[in-house]
Write a structure and sequence with these properties.
With 356 residues, the chain is mainly beta. The protein has three helices and 25 strands.
């Protein structure tokens, strides 16, 4: 299998940032819209549009497209991005196109790029009457896994050919308590732990929330088929979450909260149990989605959100690197201080040696 590089994953985050800018121009009807222009600030990054409102798939034009998820994978030497989103036949949740007032259902749609994000396939529907697409790349089996919610059930579908086809959706929540079935997964991506993880190598882990700021749930699988619920009794008064594997094998959950900052918790047993939640005072948040991406075989972690608790504006991407504990410009990621500026490789090795 092929792991994505730091550059690949950074491009993934930039594509996610572009995908989040989904409601750009007013539209009078539900007629298809032309692709919007790239914002001036994004052009310097070589950005492209992936999703925007007014796109059409299988004859349906969607007034709002939200909640993106993007992964990078490789199958038999072919490298591909797969991007998913909620294609909403309804308006609301901050998306109110002029002249459109729809109460239709939501579909899970996706697009594929085989040239590192420069061009994308036509928009396609993966699952009708479904929501909350959250993907993970499984390098062990060279396959894409997508989980979503439909009719109060948590479902999973798999593609072994980079999105050309998908398996029939299978419910993974059959044996879960009724109070957890239909848990909204994500948003963003799940994770597969590295093969060197000391607790649960190659384990798939997803996070989701049930109810508004009630409780987050985590579920995991060692075979990619059967998922068990973790003990998340500590993850209360939080909402949409995102996960990352730290270099020491610890799993970090970074979650939306009402505190004005991100909430964090860690697991030291491969996602089975979680620490008490605490507020990360260095990560302000206006109660919305955030994203974490870890770079394999490095200490580097990218975090993105608005970077303010004043509103959903000014998307920000922060790079955290090293585990030095004496830096002023740092953030507490579950008890592990991560500095906000990238240090030279030699300096990082020196810090690591001195910390032993």
């Amino acid at each position: 299998s092929t792991q994505s590089t730091g550059g690949d994953q950074l491009r993934s985050m930039l594509l996610v940032a572009a995908a989040l800018a989904l409601c750009l121009h007013p539209v009078a009807t539900m007629s298809p819209m032309d692709e919007p222009s790239i914002p001036a600030a994004a052009k310097q990054w070589g950005s492209v549009n992936v999703f925007w409102r007014g796109q059409t798939a299988d004859g349906t034009t969607y007034p709002c497209i939200r909640i993106p998820s993007i992964i990078f994978g490789s199958n038999e030497g072919v490298e591909t991005y797969l991007a998913f989103a909620e294609c909403r036949r309804n308006t609301g949740d901050g998306c109110f196109p002029t002249g459109v007032n729809s109460t239709g259902n939501t579909d899970v749609c996706y697009r594929v790029s085989s040239d590192y994000g420069e061009t994308w396939s036509a928009l396609r529907v993966l699952a009708s009457d479904a929501s909350s697409p959250t993907a993970v790349w499984d390098p062990t089996h060279e396959q894409a896994i997508i989980q979503f919610v439909s009719q109060g059930r948590n479902l999973q579908s798999i593609s072994s050919d980079l999105g050309a086809s998908w398996s029939a959706a299978v419910e993974i929540s059959t044996d879960w308590p009724s109070t957890t079935q239909g848990t909204t997964v994500g948003p963003g991506t799940g994770i597969q732990l590295s093969g060197l993880n000391p607790y649960a190598p190659r384990r798939n882990i997803f996070i989701g929330h049930h109810g508004s700021y009630s409780q987050d749930f985590v579920w995991y699988s060692d075979d990619g088929q059967t998922y068990q619920l973790a003990n998340t009794s500590t993850l209360t008064a939080v909402d949409e979450g995102t996960l990352v594997e730290l270099q020491n094998g610890v799993v970090l959950a970074n979650m939306r909260s009402k505190s004005g900052h991100r909430a964090v918790s860690v697991s030291t047993d491969g996602g089975e149990t979680w620490s008490a939640v605490h507020e990360d005072s260095l990560l302000p948040d206006p109660e919305c989605m955030g994203s974490l991406v870890g770079i394999h075989d490095t200490p580097d972690i990218y975090f993105s959100n608005p970077g303010t608790n004043a509103g959903r504006v000014n998307g920000t991407c922060l790079l955290y690197t090293s585990d030095a504990a004496d830096e002023e410009d740092s953030v507490d990621l579950g008890g592990r201080r991560i500095i906000k500026k990238k240090k030279k490789k030699k300096q990082y090795k020196k810090n690591k040696k001195e910390s032993r």
